[in-house]
C-alpha cells in the first residue's frame, strides 16, 4: 500500500475520502471535532506540495436523499478556520456544482462535497456513482479508516479508477500501524477491556482476542449476558438472551486458552434508567428484580485497576457503564484513569469505539493514552483479522 508521502501533489487534485461523521447539536454546531482535526495533516501535506483538495465524506444515516441535519455545509466554517483558507462547498457530491467547482479548483484551494450518503448508490457500492466521483480528482487518497470496513463506492469501489494514483492518508497509516503494534509487537501481559451495551457485534472480536490476550476484562451492559449465562440473577439489566450459550462457550474457551476472563464482582444498580434513579451497590450476580446494573462496582474497579496497572499492552473498547449519566460514570472514569496511569508507566494503550473515545475526551485523558483510534467497527474487524475493503482497494 502506498503512502501519501510517496507522492508529490504539485498541480494535482487530490480526492480525499475523509471521515467527517461528527456529532452535531440541534443548532448544527459540531460537538466533537476530533475527526476533522485528525484529517488536517493529510490535507496540509497536499496543499503544502502545491496541490488542491476535494474532500468527500458521509455524515449520519440519511434515509432518502438530502436532509438538512446531515448536510456537510455545517462543517464549512470550522474547516475554513482550521485550514486558514475559505473552503468551497458543492451542494451535490456528483452534480453540476461538484463538477464545475472541482474543475476550476486551483492549487492551494479546498472543496468540500455534500454528504455522499444523500445518494443510496454510495452504500450500495454503485459503479457509475464511483466513476463520476472519480472523475473529480487526479489522485485518490483514502483517509477514512472509520469506514474502511465497508465496501462503499467512495471507500473501495472508486479506487480502481486510480491505477498507480491511490494512496493512504496519515490517519489510515497511523491507525493500521498502531493496531499492528498491539497485535504483532505485543508486550505482555496484554489486557483487553471490553464494555458497551451489547455483546452482539463484538462476538467475533472477543473470540479472536482469546487467542491473543492474557486478560479480558468485561464491563458495561454486555457483562450481564455473561453473568446470566453463569446462572446469576441480573434483575432488569440489559441482556441478550439469544447469546447466553455463546457467552458460556466464551467463558469455557478462555479457560482452555489460559486467558483470565474477569467479570465484575459488584455493580451499581438503579431502579430505573435515569440519572435521578435510586442507586445501590450489590453483587453483580444477585441483582433484585426490577433493578438494573448501570455501572461496575467499587470492588470490580479495584480488581480491574490492579490488572490494568500490571499490563504492558492495553486495548479498550466500550464504556464500563452508562457514563453519559454522572451517577453511573465512576467505573468508566476510573478505568480510563488507570489506563492513563499504566501508559505513563510505559505501557502501550489503544482506545477505540465512538463511546469510548467520547469517554476519554470527557475525562481529558486523550493525551494520557498511546493512541485513540477514530474507527470503532473498523478497528474491531481489523483486530479480528478481517481484510478491510478500504485497505484492500488501495493495495490491488
Ligand atoms: P456500544 O455501542 O455497544 O459500545 O455501547 C455503548 C453504550 O453502552 C453507551 O452509550 C453506554 O451508555 C451503554 N452502556 C454501558 N453500560 C451499560 C449498562 N450497564 N446498561 C445499559 N447500557 C450500558
Task: Characterise this structure.
By secondary structure, this protein is of the alpha/beta class. It folds into two domains: about 5-170, Phosphoglycerate kinase, N-terminal domain (Rossmann fold, 3-Layer(aba) Sandwich); about 185-385, Rossmann fold, CATH 3.40.50.1260. The chain has 14 helices and 17 strands. Strands 3-4-2-1-5-6 form a six-stranded parallel β-sheet, with helices on both faces. The protein has a six-stranded parallel β-sheet with strand order 10-8-7-15-16-17, with helices on both faces. A three-stranded antiparallel β-sheet has the order 12-11-14. Helix 7 (about 205-210) packs across helix 13 (about 375-385). The model has no long low-confidence stretch (mean pLDDT about 95). The structure holds adenosine monophosphate (AMP). Adenosine monophosphate binds near residues 197, 198 and 293.
Mean pLDDT: 96
CATH architecture name of the largest domain: 3-Layer(aba) Sandwich
Helix content: 25-40%
CATH class of the largest domain: Alpha Beta
Number of helices: 14
CATH topology of the largest domain: Rossmann fold
For the terminal residues, how far apart are their CA atoms? 8 Å
> Which molecules other than protein and nucleic acid are bound?
adenosine monophosphate
| Strands in their spatial order, largest beta sheet | 3-4-2-1-5-6
Which class best fits the helix and strand makeup?
Answer: alpha/beta
Q: What is the CA-atom radius of gyration, in angstroms?
A: 22 Å
As for the number of domains, it is 2
Major beta-sheet overview: 6 strands, parallel
- The overall strand count is 17
Amino acid at each position: 500500500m502506498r503512502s501519501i508521502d510517496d507522492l508529490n501533489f504539485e498541480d494535482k487534485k487530490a480526492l480525499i475520502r475523509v471521515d467527517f461523521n461528527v456529532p452535531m447539536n440541534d443548532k448544527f454546531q459540531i460537538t466533537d471535532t476530533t475527526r476533522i482535526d485528525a484529517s488536517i495533516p493529510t490535507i496540509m501535506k497536499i496543499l503544502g506540495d502545491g496541490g488542491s483538495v476535494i474532500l468527500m465524506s458521509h455524515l449520519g444515516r440519511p434515509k432518502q436523499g438530502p436532509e438538512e441535519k446531515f448536510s456537510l455545509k455545517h462543517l464549512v466554517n470550522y474547516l475554513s478556520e482550521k485550514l486558514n483558507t475559505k473552503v468551497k462547498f458543492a451542494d451535490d457530491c456528483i452534480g453540476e456544482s461538484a463538477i464545475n467547482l472541482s474543475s476550476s479548483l486551483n492549487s492551494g484551494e479546498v472543496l468540500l462535497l455534500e454528504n455522499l450518503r444523500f445518494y443510496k448508490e454510495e452504500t450500495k457500492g454503485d459503479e457509475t456513482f464511483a466513476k463520476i466521483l472519480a472523475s473529480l480528482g487526479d489522485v485518490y487518497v483514502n483517509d477514512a479508516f472509520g469506514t474502511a470496513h465497508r465496501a462503499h463506492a467512495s471507500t473501495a469501489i472508486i479506487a480502481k479508477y486510480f491505477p498507480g494514483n491511490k494512496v493512504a492518508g496519515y490517519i489510515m497509516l497511523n491507525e493500521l500501524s498502531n493496531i499492528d503494534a498491539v497485535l504483532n509487537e505485543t508486550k505482555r501481559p496484554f489486557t483487553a477491556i471490553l464494555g458497551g451495551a451489547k455483546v452482539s457485534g463484538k462476538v467475533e472480536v472477543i473470540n479472536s482476542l482469546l487467542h491473543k490476550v492474557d486478560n479480558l476484562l468485561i464491563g458495561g451492559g454486555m457483562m450481564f449476558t455473561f453473568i446470566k449465562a453463569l446462572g446469576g440473577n441480573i434483575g432488569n439489566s440489559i441482556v441478550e438472551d439469544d447469546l447466553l450459550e455463546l457467552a458460556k462457550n466464551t467463558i469455557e474457551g478462555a479457560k482452555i486458552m489460559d486467558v483470565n476472563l474477569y467479570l465484575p464482582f459488584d455493580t451499581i444498580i438503579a431502579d430505573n434508567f435515569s440519572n435521578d434513579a435510586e442507586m445501590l451497590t450489590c453483587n453483580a450476580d444477585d441483582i433484585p428484580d426490577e433493578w438494573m446494573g448501570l455501572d461496575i462496582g467499587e470492588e470490580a474497579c479495584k480488581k480491574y485497576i490492579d490488572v490494568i496497572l500490571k499490563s504492558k499492552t492495553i486495548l479498550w473498547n466500550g464504556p464500563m457503564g452508562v457514563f453519559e449519566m454522572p451517577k453511573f460514570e465512576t467505573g468508566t472514569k476510573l478505568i480510563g484513569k488507570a489506563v492513563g496511569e499504566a501508559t505513563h508507566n510505559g505501557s502501550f494503550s489503544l482506545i477505540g469505539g465512538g463511546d469510548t473515545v467520547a469517554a476519554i475526551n470527557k475525562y481529558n485523558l486523550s493525551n494520557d493514552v498511546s493512541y485513540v483510534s477514530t474507527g470503532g467497527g473498523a478497528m474491531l474487524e481489523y483486530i479480528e483479522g478481517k481484510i478491510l475493503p478500504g485497505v484492500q482497494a488501495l493495495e490491488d
